[in-house]
Amino acid sequence: MNKKFIRFSAIAMLFAMNTYAQEQEPKQLEEVVVSDSKFSLPKEKSGKVIVQITAADLKKKAGQSVATILSTVAGVEINGNQSRNGKDLGLYIRGGRNHQVLILIDGVPVTDASGISLSYDLRLLPVEQIESIEIMKGASSTLYGSGAATGVINITLKKAGKKAIAGNAYLNVGTQTVAKSANYSVQDYNQGFAVNGGFEKVNYFASLNSTETTGISEARPLNSNTQFENDDFSRLNSVVKIGFTPTKKLSLDFFANYDRMKSDFDAGSFSDDPINFSLSEQFRVGFSPKYKYNKGEFVINSGANVINRDIFNFGSLFQAKSRSVNVDAFNKYEISSQLFVVTGAQFQFHEMSNMSLYDAITTDLAKFNMIDPYVTAVYNSDFGLNVNAGARYNIHSKYGNNLVYNVNPSYSFSESLKVLASYSTAFVTPSLYQLYSPYGDLDLSPEKDATAEIGFEVSLANKKLVLNAVAFQREEEDAIGFDLMTYKYFNVDGKNKAKGFETMVSYAFNDKVKFNANYTFTELERQSRILNPKHKANATVDVQATARLAFNLAYQFVSDRYLEYTTYPAPNFSPVLNSEILKDYQLVNANVRFELIKNRLNIFSAVDNILDKDFVESRGYSTRGRNFKLGLNFLF
After folding, report:
1. pLDDT the model gives residue 532
2. Residue span of the signal peptide, if any (predicted)?
3. Which string of DSSP letters, residue by residue, matches 319-347?
4. Do 221 and 274 form a contact (C-beta atoms < 8 A)?
5. May I ask the CATH architecture of the domain 3-635?
């Protein structure tokens, strides 16, 4: 689709649809979580410290990517979020890796069956289509199956409102430059629109987004006298959701979306390449019926996706295709007002194929499926004790049977103090790529994880001050590693441990000034190649200066990171394993928002890396310096 057409459409929507302009109804923030039981549960009765990023929180971070927003959460590090727009991302929760984190979109797991780690690519998702996010850390395979070893990121997309027609159109423009560079020309465009509404028993939501960025080379030159070419990034996202409620007890929800992403990339660290590119196309469809009855609710979350990827690298084309199907049927039954049980069964199917000059993998070979029955019981007493416990039996077409379980008690001594503890296990099957690619090993074993945690949450001064802290330890057995000398995946001998501590504090000085901060300490027994900082801290101050004017000031500290990498020195070009310490860095960002026309037109301005710090996020790759962004959002 023509990029100029998308941009023109977004601008035209600002003015052409004022006929339908109506005042938006304010949404009340509900203190409930869903990730630890799959059903709405009062936050104070949950035995987990679950981080919620609400729609209001997303507004305060206008102009930032999904990866950058998630990287401000305690215990979460997304390497690449400070690099060129389109840089591949490393997703680490509590020192884990991409394949240990499960991502859900509207309750449906999303994966890339042809990807190295079977994990979803967050670059495919624009933040403008997101309503809220929940992050639950710790092993969660009991409820969510393979891949949920260090955490679950539960993303909820925007949905229909109660009016017959409503929506918004937006346009954001910004700079894209490295530190110590005075090039502040506009090179980042993001635009789109959404419409939603409902009538009688039908509701709908549709959104279109387009992003185009240039201005920065992915690779970083070894010296300032060398000039690398800029690497472009473009993305197109469309989603349609239709809901039908034939009765008060039954609802039927359908969705379909198309994502297209093209990104230039270089030959590696400190190495430019003018023609490398990757092109990804994703098609997703799904169906989620829900039926409520006297003592419970039955839900089916289903989805299927096809991903096609073309990668042109080192003068040749690599083509990959993947297909995944996920059906999760589960039922909540209230035995009493204090006890409910969730029973369910999940089916997953993944297959991939790829073709290049050097190798070919067919779907007849590279595929597997899983069938998992599971049960979870949630007990909420009237004297403060809460218990969440369950088990899942995984039946894998290649790896046989695996049993995982969790026990998660908590106790509320009063409305202001809660203590919690948990012990949970998880398993992670090797990806199809790790099994069947030229770098794979068909004899790989599934990784097994166990996580123990203990913590507390306290609220004082009528909930103006909230403080929580959690200590954790995770033990990995048969961890899946990658040998930098042989370029093969393997199971790490022995057990690997990760331990750490997370704390978050928030304080509301008054209705207009709020402060939030978090700190994470993570220590890995074996460093491997994970660019996870040992210390990380975030702090923000939010000020609602007037009814229409608000601003946000954010600070982030990332400590030293240990890195291993391979070089091939002349004359024999034999591989040599090296290590390096990437130095710590600090960032200061700001955001200002103003309601120009009440309930109609909002504008924002953002400055990232205000101090223009030149730092290294990934060895040999560029990072963004001081950059500016302006945007407007028109409501109708």
Report:
1. 85
2. 1-21
3. EEEEEEEEEEEEEEEESSSSEEEEEEEEE
4. no
5. Beta Barrel (2.40)
